[in-house]
Write a structure and sequence with these properties.
The protein is of the alpha/beta class and 246 residues long. The chain has one domain. Helices cover 50% and strands 16% of the residues. It contains 13 helices and eight strands. A six-stranded parallel sheet has the order 4-3-8-7-5-6, with helices on both faces. Helix 6 links the parallel strand 5 and strand 6. It is globular and about 45 Å long. Catalyzes the conversion of GlcNAc-PP-undecaprenol into ManNAc-GlcNAc-PP-undecaprenol, the first committed lipid intermediate in the de novo synthesis of teichoic acid. It is an enzyme of class 2 (transferase). Its EC number is 2.4.1.187.
Length: 246
């Protein structure tokens, strides 16, 4: 891929947040038959792609892979890739809601528990009144409910299908059903609905400015410490990784 930084074999386009929104805006505007899959590529996904061939295939087939995390950006800069900034799933979702409020885009939200899903939808309706929420469903569904969810999404044909089922399950779910979902764009957003609903507190801007959001989340959610151990492992492996020449 031209104008991209490769991190452990994964190409990340050198795009800012605003440029990413512009790309997705064009996807919404034009007529197309296939679903456009956005993967927010964090260190966990990049590391998993090194041994999980199916996940690597899903990422390779995605329409857009964004740099979800300062770790991705910093490694790219140390290796000369120079990604301009991070484009996290949560921040991108907020930007899409802002743009969607102007363009009157439609959304379907899948994921989180029922109270969180409901609260997130209520806040989105309040803060972005011109956004159309064509449907929503919590993320704790069985096979029978899954069939109904897919049919509901197919009938709604939303501009954006937002999947908050956690990575990489969200990516696998989107890819598995992408031929029948009838959404224009689908994107996994991790725990973003928890943040929108107010269930999980987002790091203050000063923490984000100094790229310490990971520490804020660890302090407020100590149970995440095992997940955070992957960050130093990722940094070492990514910096020592020998990229194959195209």
């Amino acid at each position: 891929m031209e104008n991209a930084a490769r991190i452990m074999g994964i190409p990340f386009p050198k795009m800012t947040m605003d440029q990413s929104v512009q790309v997705l805006s064009k996807v919404v505007e034009k007529e197309q038959t296939g679903l456009f899959h956005v993967v927010t590529g964090n260190p966990e996904i990049v590391m998993s792609c090194q041994h999980d061939k199916q996940l690597r295939s899903i990422v390779d087939e995605a329409g857009l892979v964004t740099a979800d995390g300062i770790g991705i950006v910093m490694v790219s800069r140390l290796r000369g890739g120079n990604l301009p900034e991070r484009v996290t799933g949560c921040d991108l979702l907020y930007k899409l809601l802002e743009a969607g409020n102007q363009e009157k885009w439609s959304f379907y939200f899948l994921g989180a528990d029922e109270p969180t899903s409901q609260q997130a939808a209520e806040r989105i309706r309040r803060d972005y009144p011109n956004v159309s929420i064509l449907g929503r469903h919590h993320g704790f569904f069985n096979e029978e409910e899954e069939v109904k969810i897919i049919e509901e999404i197919r009938a709604a044909t939303p501009d954006f299908l937002i999947v908050a089922l956690g990575a990489p399950y969200a990516e696998r779910w989107i890819h598995k059903h992408k031929e029948i979902l009838h959404a224009k764009i689908a994107m996994g957003v991790g725990g973003s609905l928890d943040i929108i609903a107010g269930k999980v507190r987002r790091a203050p801007r000063v923490w984000q400015k100094f790229h310490m959001e990971w520490l804020f989340r660890l302090i407020n959610q100590p149970s995440r410490w095992k997940r955070q151990l992957i960050l130093p492992r990722f940094a070492v492996r990514a910096l020592l990784y020998r990229e194959r020449k195209a």
